[in-house]
Design brief:
heterodimer, A: alpha+beta, Alpha-Beta Plaits, 3-stranded mixed β-sheet, two-stranded antiparallel ribbon, 20% strand, B: mainly alpha, Formate dehydrogenase/DMSO reductase fold, 71% helix
């Protein structure tokens, strides 16, 4: 099995629900976004466009972050291909962060609250013990939710159903079918990392516009 | 800039800067790589020209680099776990190289200072092992950066070679400082070594500049160095103080004695230039843009 995700850029409405759902699920401190979005304006008037690109850890099949980790803290689970970090083994060298082309990793130098000077909120007090200072963190496809038979929080909370999660090794799974039908592509394939996150183009040929 | 603010600014940038090995405590990483390079270069030169003081300085530099490496880590108390992955991680290989170098070099040096001599079997074995470990120390730094596929400036087969040249140059600079205190070999051998290493370093950097013409991300990094935010540091500290001033002093030393002070100034400025060069290379690192990779 190889868990993966398809993000349909045609369906995405740039609402940031994935980002907020992720922060709520994982209780990440300020400056840490396991799921986030690039929103960049390109071109010059009148030939301009806004590029909106939802991002998360790509859970690569050939992860560069795993190779460079000196302790084995970052490793890929054989059973489902999810790339995880063992916080107790992480030395905080941050080599994985320089090796990741998808900017998916964060170093927790300190763990601050969202309201400086007012202490931590009850929610922050409940969630922050899950995080280890001076280690690296990232998305783990909500593996605790997966163990309970649920989808990752960003998938479950996407109002436009732009995120589809499933087994890439199964040719009949919805992600596999969409990748094949709509010419799904990976980001930076030239890096040789073989990401498990695919994107469906915002503009697709007419034959690919049929309803799911 | 605070971490959240830097992140939000980065999320609007097409060319996202590499920050984790450039800002905050990353100065310790730059210092550690600088010290280990100087130590390896000094050990090589000290052995070739038989300068025990330089060998001692080199051993101290590498020992200090180990301590500074630890200061960079988020959890230095877990550093022992880094010995686990020499099969794939250059950080792990570097740790092994330093761990092997320190005791063998110390034992060889003790022999050089007369404890048991250097020509017996024990001394020769320590010499050979320390030289092999020195090779590892020369190599690991460049590869730690070069394996980072995401940072185009670093992900180059030239970088390890370039960092070896910088290490050799740093060793020669330490040799210039050592010459101020002890009698060295005649014929300006240390000065010639420094000039050769400096020329090699400059040559390799110029090749990187030329290569950057064909890659927009590398070009962006090099622009930061020679025409952007880092240009002041690069021209003043790296080129001016690190190359031109020491080169003038070293070349002058062929014609007339520049005295101990001249040697020390040349050596220290050269070393400072190397330190700033490493800082600039780390800070100029830029990630391959993601937004251009998408098909909107």
């Amino acid at each position: 099995m190889r868990y993966g995700m398809v993000i349909d850029l045609k369906r995405c409405i740039s609402c940031y629900a994935c980002q907020m759902a992720c922060k709520t699920e994982n209780g990440t401190p300020p400056g840490v976004l396991y799921a986030w979005a690039y929103r960049v304006e390109q071109g010059e008037y009148p030939d301009t466009r806004q590029v909106y690109l939802p991002m998360l850890c790509n859970h690569c099949d050939e992860p560069g972050c795993v190779d460079v980790c000196p302790t084995g803290a970052t490793h890929k689970r054989e059973e489902d291909g999810i790339v995880v970090i063992d916080a107790d083994a992480c030395v905080g060298c941050r080599a994985c962060m320089t090796a990741c082309p998808y900017h998916a990793r964060y170093y927790l130098d300190e763990i601050r609250g969202y309201y400086p000077g007012q202490g931590l909120t009850p929610y922050e007090k409940a969630m922050y013990p899950e995080h280890s200072k001076r280690t690296v963190e990232k998305c783990n496809f909500c593996m605790d939710r997966l163990a309970e038979g649920k989808e990752p929080a960003c998938v479950a909370n996407c109002p436009a159903v732009a995120r589809i999660f499933g087994d890439l090794d199964d040719p009949d799974s919805e992600p596999s079918r969409l990748i094949k039908r709509d010419a799904g592509y990976q980001l930076l394939p030239e890096m040789g990392t073989d990401p498990s996150v695919y994107y469906l183009p915002a503009e697709r040929p007419a034959k690919a516009k049929e309803s799911r | 800039m605070s971490q959240p603010l830097a992140l939000y600014r980065d999320l609007e940038a097409v060319y996202r800067p590499q920050r984790v090995w450039a800002e905050g405590r990353a100065g310790a990483l730059v210092g550690a790589h600088f010290l280990s390079g100087v130590g390896a270069g000094g050990w090589l030169l000290g052995l070739v020209l038989n300068i025990p003081l330089l060998l001692s300085l080199s051993l101290a530099a590498i020992a200090l680099s180990g301590v500074v490496h630890l200061a960079f880590l988020g959890h230095p108390e877990r550093a022992w776990k880094m010995i686990k992955r020499p099969s794939s991680s250059w950080i792990s290989r570097g740790l092994w190289a330093i761990m092997i170098f320190l005791p063998t070099a110390a034992l060889y040096l003790a022999g050089a200072y007369g404890a048991w001599g250097t020509r017996g079997a024990f001394g020769i074995i320590m010499l050979v092992i320390s030289v092999v470990a020195m090779g590892g120390i020369f190599l690991y730094k460049g590869f730690v950066y070069a394996v980072s596929r995401a940072v185009a400036l670093w992900h180059s087969p030239l970088l390890p070679v370039s960092y070896i040249a910088v290490g050799v140059r740093g060793g020669a600079a330490a040799g210039l400082v050592a010459l101020a205190f002890v009698d060295g070999p005649g014929g300006h051998l240390v000065q010639t070594w420094w000039i050769a290493a400096t020329c090699a370093t400059i040559f390799l950097f110029l090749i990187e500049l030329a290569m950057g013409q064909h890659d927009s991300t590398i070009g962006r990094s090099l622009h930061l160095l020679i025409g952007g935010d880092l240009a002041g540091v690069f021209y003043v500290a790296v080129v001016g103080l690190g190359v031109i001033v020491p080169a003038a002093l070293v070349i002058a030393s062929y014609a007339a004695s520049i005295g101990a002070a001249g040697l020390i100034i040349a050596g220290i400025l050269s070393l400072a230039g190397d330190l700033f060069y490493k800082y600039c290379m780390n800070t100029a690192g830029t990630y391959v843009p993601l937004v251009q990779a998408t098909k909107h």
